[in-house]
Amino acid sequence: MAPSLEQKISAFYDRSSGLWEQIWGEHMHHGYYGPTGETPKSRLQAQIDLIEELLHWGAVERGADILDVGCGIGGSSIYLAGKFGANVTGITLSSVQAGRGQSRAQRLGLADRVSFQVANALEMPFADQSFDLVWTLESGEHMADKAQFLQECCRVLQPGGKLLMATWCHRPTLPDYPPLTEKESEHLRRIYQVYCLPYVISLPDYQAIATTLPLTEVKTADWSSAVAPFWQDVIASTTSPQALWGLLTAGWSTVEAALSLGLMSQGFRSGLIRYGLLQGVKVADEVGNF
């Protein structure tokens, strides 16, 4: 029996997360290089700046109970817990990532406030209205049903709670822009295959989904230019002896992903790949349900 998408994603991150942490650190997401992507900085500082800029853009000033959807090995979860003194729950499909996140939280003395578990974001094991901030940093691209994903994020939010998402997108298409060309579709297909993605959608498509949910103050932004240099930084770092040895011992799927880093860099340069942000605040409906 062929493995499911969830099993493929889990296996991919089980194999690759250790190497990523060893070479690139605990933050498994893009970096922020200034609004136009021209501010020189280290990759790690850029990744931390992305978190801070996203919080600023989302006007997040507090968060007592936070859900980190697609938490990786806990980089954002631990950062948010420290910044806000918050209780943070991270979920991932990878048991390796969840275990590593938990061990890091324990080592840092945060195990009483930060926890990690294996869970499917399309069927979250949490009660309605459990969190006052749902933070999802580059996990939407892995979701097989984007509408269900946003519905679940909204369901677990408390009234007045905020959804803050950053995700890989493709460029806008109809009705305002041309449809994807065959060349663009093939480029995306190759990215899907390497990174275990079912498909990506445009930022306007995400916004359209959000407007069907009990969310107000829905806002989007395109930060493609700000994050595009990240891939060149990662490509440059793969030439170190440590990275080369790690790739050779990590298995073919990890090697394939490393060899395909240029697909993302090329996608940003051509305008096909976009980096989209979305936020919204949970509201009550007319009969008091949420």
UniProtKB/TrEMBL annotation:
| Recorded family membership | Belongs to the class I-like SAM-binding methyltransferase superfamily. gTMT family.
Q: What is this protein called?
A: Methyltransferase domain-containing protein
Region annotation SAM motif I: where it falls in the sequence? 66-75
Output one GO MF annotation.
S-adenosylmethionine-dependent methyltransferase activity
Q: Which PROSITE patterns does this entry report, sorted A to Z?
A: SAM_GTMT
> What organism is recorded for this protein?
Pseudocalidococcus azoricus BACA0444
Instruction: Write down the superkingdom of origin.
Output: Bacteria
Q: Where is this region: SAM motif II?
A: 129-137
